[in-house]
Amino acid sequence: MKKFHYPQHPFIIAEMSGNHNRSLDRALELIGRAAVCGADAIKIQTYTADTITLDHDGPEFLVDLPLWKGRKLYELYQEAYTPWEWHKPMFDRAAELGITIFSSPFDETAVDLLEDLGAPLYKIASFELIDTPLVRYAAKTGKPMIVSTGMATLAEISEAVEAARSGGCTDLTLLHCVSAYPAPVEQTNLATMVALEKNFPGVRIGLSDHTLGTEVAMTAVAMGAKVIEKHFTIARADGGVDSAFSLEPHELKDLCDRTKNIAKNTPLLEAAIGVVDFEKAGEASGRAYRPSLYVVKDMKRGEVFTSDNVRSVRPANGLPPGEIDNVLGKVASRDIKFGTALEKGMISRL
After folding, report:
1. pTM
2. Segment (H or E) for 135
3. What 8-state DSSP symbol labels residue 109?
4. Whole-angstrom Cα distance, residue 152 to residue 245?
């Protein structure tokens, strides 16, 4: 398999997760649908119930998350996992269709399997970010890595970045992520995504998005996201462990089309973002037509300025409107004709 390179446009990942609903045929169809929609990659997860948890009845092995509340971890992962014998036909189908396929490994044996299949890159899931030995093991492959940062503190992210880099990863992407299913829009805080780039120079940034719809993902692209990951299913009505917050094909296609359109206009976006500029040079000609103080009736020397003979009107040749309180009650230092821009020299005792 040839070396992986990111495209010029934002890299759109369709996350299959457990939405194959325990059917290889459905998994292969999801790969095909993602390719037709224009996704750059389809991502799967590589684990078994036995590699990711224990078959135990203790209360700590029961899920307390709204979407799966009360279920045993072991039973949930038995339902959601992608059988390892499916991996090769799935990789083969993706190769036929020209779409990148890669995976999130959850232990070292998963990395070994994926290496045998020629996986082009690796994703570390948010929950596994703190498993720095796994991060380091995946990094030793020398492949590009994507790390989701859901639930992680800045210190934990720093430790994962150090593990990846010390393991040999030279192409690292950090995805801002809110590990809620679905994630409320008001908790997304995309400013955190931008902060990742500032805190960890040299990383690529993006979003692993669990909100409903595509609006948050599109906003992230406009803010500089180079990678977008969204869960993907054929139809939410079909059910499945992650279906409730997954995109359907028409939504994925819309996301792909719109992000690629943004990419075409990247120079325009960069020009629009620009730099901090409160002077706004392009507005210079417009400033001439802001309001200022003008004499609106003929006045004689010594006449008192009142609201009847001086007003704030356009254009901007006179004193600023905010000077009006310093003008009223003062007297004219000379005769002033109607339509004259008021200047300090025309006012006695200003």
Report:
1. 0.80
2. helix 132-139
3. H
4. 21
pLDDT of 262-316, one tens digit each?
Answer: 766 666 665 666 666 666 566 667 788 888 999 999 999 999 999 999 999 999 9
Q: Which of 227, 251, 273 is the last residue of a domain?
A: 273
Q: Which residue has the tokens 């020209």?
A: 98
**Domain carrying residue 40:** 11-273
HSE, CB side, 13 Å, CA atoms: give it for residue 158.
6
Angle at alpha carbon of residue 214, lines to 209 and 216, rounded to 5° = 60
Transcribe 37-106 into DSSP letters: HT-SEEEEEE--HHHHS----SGGGB--SGGGTT-BHHHHHHHH---GGGHHHHHHHHHHHT-EEEEEES
- pLDDT tens column, 5-60: 999 889 999 999 999 999 999 999 999 999 999 999 999 999 999 999 999 989 99
CATH number of the domain that residue 299 is part of: 3.90.1210.10
Question: Do 193 and 10 touch, CB atoms closer than 8 A?
Answer: no
Residues 74 and 103 in one domain: yes
